[in-house]
Here is the input.
Amino acid sequence: MKWLWPGSMRRAYRPDGFPFAHRLMRWMVLVLCLNQVPTAWAIQRTHMAHLFMKPRPFDLFLYQVHAWSGWAILGLVLAQLVLRFAYGRPPPVQGMSMVERIIAAVMHAALYAVLIALPVTSTIAMYVTFLIAPRHSLLSWTLLVLVLLHAGAALWHHFWRRDDVFWRMIRKAR
Here is the structure.
């Protein structure tokens, strides 16, 4: 029954990186998010076609790919949160100020929130009401801004600060 006790599974990550499962999920989310862009265009074509004619079968297929990819993203993000809750996260890289740590925490929270909200709003738009679609679109643009800031911060850490923040999500923990 030890596994039922909160925190009994907690163990600290190594200070030099994330475990393989966490890194794999993170990169899978990125690939699936990149997949969402061209398939979203098919959704727009499908809705325009419904006004005048029957949508193309390939666009309907891409619509389903978009939906299933979104749900896969949701599952992977929730699994990442479970891992983060169960095992914690690596400690901050040495030399990061409190302000940098707060900014990093806010950025990660915002990324998780948007990555959860996007498939939820999409599912509501598909099955309940399309009135939420503008919010879904706004969240998509918000995700793009957050990802660009996140990638920029990683590159800043790598090239300017020359610390290990960038490498912790790429290489195997030693």
Remarks:
- The CA atoms of residues 74 and 115 lie 7 Å apart.
- The first helix runs from residue 20 to 52.
- The chain is about 70% helix and 0% strand.
